[in-house]
């Protein structure tokens, strides 16, 4: 494709977006008595309302980023719990592999949430259904498309929370080797929310607590580093 073709496509995309933002949609607004002055009571106000599809376009990138970050995090969890790939760590990071399931169900949960986010990332705005006797000729479903991001980010927080407690368990299995002071402080915060797994237990409270910890930003507070080398301190 030539640079001229790309430029032309860019101009068309810009014009389509501007048309969607500025197009007039006749939406009557009923103003009840008492909202304005008495002479304006029960007035029917005609106004313009922008099509929200362009607002959805700004959210679409967030949907795909949330899905992809979760997919990458889940694969890291899978590496940590697989004894064939974890460089000497026990299966599922269980203290007694074979007798205990360790973090196996937590890893399965992360895979389920990752798959759920993949499904949620599918487009919602690929079709339009006219409504209101064809007065609403283009219903973009953009709000339905954008609101998925709330659910997807909740799933992502759980996935990354599972990754964090899995990583902490893996580091502890490397004892007497120790990590850096910086990462040690992070692990201490993880352990406040999710204690070390010494025997099988219901993991749902741990996953919920880790998701909440990530949402609070307390996990990273005070440990931001400008480079990988800073973590060695």
Give a structural overview:
The protein is mostly helical. The protein has a single domain, classed as Fumarase/aspartase (Central domain) (Fumarase C, Chain A, domain 2), CATH 1.20.200. Helix content is 53%, strand content 3%. It is built from six helices and two strands; from the N terminus they run αββααααα. Strands 1-2 form a two-stranded antiparallel sheet. The mean pLDDT is 80.
Describe the structure using short key phrases.
single chain, Fumarase C, Chain A, domain 2, mainly alpha, two-stranded antiparallel ribbon, elongated
Q: Helix coverage percent of residues?
A: 40-55%
Report the oligomer: single chain
Radius of gyration: 25 Å
Q: Enumerate the spans where pLDDT stays under 50 for 5 or more consecutive residues.
A: none
Mean pLDDT comes to: 80
Structural class computed from helices and strand pairing: mainly alpha
What is the topology, as strand order, of the major beta sheet?
Answer: 1-2
CATH class: Mainly Alpha
Tell me about the biggest sheet? 2 strands, antiparallel
End-to-end C-alpha gap:
50 Å
* Series of secondary-structure elements, N-terminal to C-terminal: HEEHHHHH
Care to give the gist of this entry?
The chain is mainly α and 233 residues long. It has a single domain, classed as Fumarase C, Chain A, domain 2.
């Amino acid at each position: 494709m030539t640079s001229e073709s790309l430029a032309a496509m860019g101009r068309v995309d810009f014009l389509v977006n501007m048309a969607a933002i500025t197009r007039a949609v006749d939406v009557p607004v009923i103003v009840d008595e008492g909202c304005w002055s008495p002479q304006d009571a029960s007035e029917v106000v005609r106004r313009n309302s922008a099509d929200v599809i362009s607002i959805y376009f700004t959210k679409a990138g967030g949907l795909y980023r949330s899905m992809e970050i979760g997919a990458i995090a889940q694969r890291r969890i899978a590496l940590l719990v697989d004894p064939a790939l974890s460089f000497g760590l026990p299966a599922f990071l269980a203290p007694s592999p074979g007798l205990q399931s360790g973090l196996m169900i937590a890893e399965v949960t992360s895979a389920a949430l990752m798959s759920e986010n993949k499904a949620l990332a599918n487009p919602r705005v690929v079709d339009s259904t006219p409504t209101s006797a064809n007065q609403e000729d283009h219903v973009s479903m953009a709000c339905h498309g954008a609101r998925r991001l709330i659910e997807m980010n909740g799933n992502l927080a759980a996935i990354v929370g599972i990754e964090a407690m899995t990583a902490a368990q893996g580091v502890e299995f490397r004892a007497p080797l120790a990590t850096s002071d910086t990462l040690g402080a992070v692990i201490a915060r993880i352990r406040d929310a999710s204690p070390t797994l010494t025997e099988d237990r219901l993991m749902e409270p741990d996953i919920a607590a880790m998701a909440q910890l990530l949402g609070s930003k307390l996990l990273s507070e005070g440990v931001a580093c400008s480079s990988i080398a800073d973590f060695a301190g």
